[in-house]
Design brief:
elongated, two-stranded antiparallel ribbon, alpha+beta, BirA Bifunctional Protein, domain 2
Length: 357
């Protein structure tokens, strides 16, 4: 045992790196190491011999393990000293020019409209982007044969073979959040639901992922007049104009009845959009009175409560307000584009201090 002790303690002291140290550990105290083999010989000894050899072998094993641990720590300290010696930094060198990040126009528009609707008494509601088929379609009175439910328009999640449950989808609008909010809060309720949505479309004015904000107000005495006033106040505040004229055109949406698309009076002067003046009209959103079936799907009695809902594309709002010509540029991750169109990170929009300073 004295020979084994001298042999391995010497090798440990001479080890130059952790790989060599590991090889020594395996040869000495590994499962097939010399000390382990000596341990197996205890069974051949007499009880008296085992009383002497057993403690001695255990002491040898502990001493070798302690030496290995000490050497490993010493090697780690030496490696750290070498790194500190070579990876030094002269803190007296000039610093880089300070750079500040900027807010994406979609985030800016979202913050602006949130501030506006907060002043109008709306709270913000959020929901999952991966939705159940029921919340995304059935609860919103969208029938099974509706084109929006076709795979060419909606991204369906993969289902395991033999799974007959209705599939989940990437939500095609933020209307499911309205259903979840009614289920959670009941009535009366007044919320907006901003967030990302997904549809299988891609061109200059459409992308597979874009952003919407939908509004919902449910109470006992809400009418289309309330809807008109809310939308007028929003448009005036968002585009920062004193007056605006909206035109409601009859339309059809499964989740509202009656339904209306909303146009805004505008003009184009040398390619520049001016809101609230001129002889042109531009469609900006869809709206209507919430269908009784949708109210009932949210767990509210449609015989007692009624309300309005509307949906607006946030990306489109940002394009109109800030003169951005191509929707696809929102998702190109081009820092040059963001430096041009971005907003100061610390300038939070509010109605009193200004929206887009």
């Amino acid at each position: 045992m004295d020979d084994l002790k001298a042999k391995y303690l010497g090798q440990i002291a001479d080890a130059g790196d952790e790989n060599a140290l590991e090889a020594i550990r395996v040869a000495a105290v590994g499962k097939k190491g010399e000390v382990a083999l000596k341990m197996r010989e205890l069974g051949k000894m007499t009880p008296e011999e085992r009383q002497v050899a057993g403690p001695a072998l255990n002491a040898l094993k502990d001493e070798i393990n302690s030496a290995l641990a000490a050497k490993k720590a010493a090697l780690a300290d030496a490696a750290l000293d070498e790194r500190l010696r070579t990876e030094w930094l002269d803190v007296t060198l000039p610093t880089r020019a300070r750079r500040q990040g900027s807010i994406h126009p979609v985030s800016q528009a979202t913050e602006e409209l949130t501030a506006i609707f907060a002043e109008l008494g709306f709270s913000v509601a959020e929901g999952p982007r991966i939705e159940t088929d029921w919340h995304n379609f059935d609860a919103l009175n969208i029938p099974g044969h509706h084109p929006a439910r076709a795979e060419m328009d909606t991204f369906y999640m993969h289902r395991a073979e033999g799974d007959n449950r209705p599939p989940h989808v990437l939500r095609t609008h933020t209307s499911p959040v309205q259903i979840r909010s009614m289920e959670l809060q009941g009535a009366p309720i007044r919320v907006i639901c901003p967030g990302g949505v997904y549809r299988a479309d891609y061109d200059q004015t459409h992308t597979p992922m874009f952003h919407q904000v939908e509004g919902l107000a449910i109470d006992k005495d809400i009418s289309m007049a309330n809807l008109k006033w809310v939308l007028e106040e929003f448009v005036k505040a968002f585009f920062e104009v004193d007056d605006v004229e909206l035109r409601f055109r009859a339309s059809h949406f499964p989740f509202t009845e009656p339904s209306a698309e909303v146009d805004i009076r505008c003009s184009w002067d040398n390619g520049q959009l001016k809101i609230g003046e001129g002889d042109d009209w531009m469609e900006i959103l869809g709206s209507g009175m919430v269908h009784p079936k949708v109210i009932a799907a949210g767990g509210i009695d449609p015989e007692v409560y009624q309300g309005f809902a509307f949906g607006i594309g946030i990306d489109r709002l940002a394009m109109l307000k800030y003169g951005i010509p191509d929707l696809r540029a929102f998702f190109d991750s081009d820092l040059r584009w963001l430096r041009h169109y971005g907003f100061a990170a610390l300038d939070m929009p509010n109605l009193h201090g200004g929206l887009s300073r």
